[in-house]
Amino acid sequence: MPSTGCYPCKPRPSQQQQQRQQGDDDAAAVSLKLLLRLTQNVLEPEQYYEWTTSYVDESRIYGWDKEADEVAEALVAPEDGGKGRLFRAAGIAGVHGSGKTALAQKVFVHDKAKDNFAIRLWVCVGPPDSEDRFGLLYRFDNLGLDTAKVEDIVDNSNVVKKHRDEEEARIRNDPAKVAEIQKKKNNKEEEDGSIFLDQLLKKEADESPDVKKSKIGVLLYILHMALSKTSYLIVFDDIRAYGDDGWYSNLTLAPPPDGEWGERLGYGLPKGKKHRGAVLVTCRKEDDARSMVRTGRVVRPPRLQLDDAWRLFRREYDQAKDAANKRKKEGDGDVDTLLKELEEMKAEIVNKCLGLPVAIAEAAKGFALLKPLDASPDPVVEEAKPAAQEESKAAAAADDR
């Protein structure tokens, strides 16, 4: 029966073999940890927000030609065989850094978009904490609207006056509210001189939800009238504040024939039969995109293929390397041995970045700041000898003494 105890003369794996295996394991772990560290800010919430614009450098966008063609075609194809409204909607959904904005930009400058839409507008909506519906509507550039004139029209519109008068009457009938405003008036007079109570009442009324909503409705009406004169494409990039109030939902819905327009953004988008209109939205959740565009096409940017991904990696790597060399005032004549090693690992790097453009770019910037790996040979570790042989040598040395 075999013994289960320790047999001192049994051969053991050499120390060199153990260290080599441990080194391989550590190298694999380090490479993964390094890549995760280089792309850490991709996985964490953004420390700052980079607002996108309508400026598009097509030479810096790689891949997605097929997807851009499909989305552009979806935005210009007529509904109901050409008999319905000339309005289409489409969406692009995907996680942060997946290339939603880049794909939308390819559609924005696509030949079909340029040929079919006289006006193309880019509106970056941004994160929820910056969500301002007044600011959003005022960011519709290229419409040639005078902001001061628009504000005057809004303030003096009948519907806004109606809600403001109702709110002022409600405030005047609330003694506690009047006392609070009177206190504000006294404090203001001490700081700024004479101030009228009616001014504060009007300001307080303007902050009420009903008055704000009526103002938004008038702005949407002005937007609708400006866009209805021509064909248009609007890109709403990075919609995140998708709430339950229906403001962004169903952008294909026509405005009500009676009543106010402040409830939905879609009311400001003309959907007539004379001029073509289209809207493209980008957001992180596919369900949100479908709620906004309804039956319109929704796509997800596929992961970048190896060749396109590596072109992006090399661009970001070279730019970061050049910037680092300029800071150090070093020349660029040296051979980049690290880049040669990265070239051999490019498939692994792209796969570990999941083909996400932002992860690939961050990894490239991080690798560009690393020093090349030491090319010296690994130190030779003397193979450990069996324990029994070591014990016999020790015993012989004791006898000699």
From TrEMBL:
Q: Which InterPro entries match?
A: Disease_R_plants, NB-ARC, P-loop_NTPase
Q: What spans are recorded as compositionally biased (Basic and acidic residues)?
A: 382-401
Single GO BP term? defense response to other organism
Annotated spans, Disordered: 1-24, 378-401
UniProt GO molecular function? ADP binding
Q: Name one Pfam family in it.
A: NB-ARC
Q: Which residues form the NB-ARC domain?
A: 68-129
Name of the protein in its database record:
NB-ARC domain-containing protein
Organism the protein comes from: Panicum virgatum (Blackwell switchgrass)
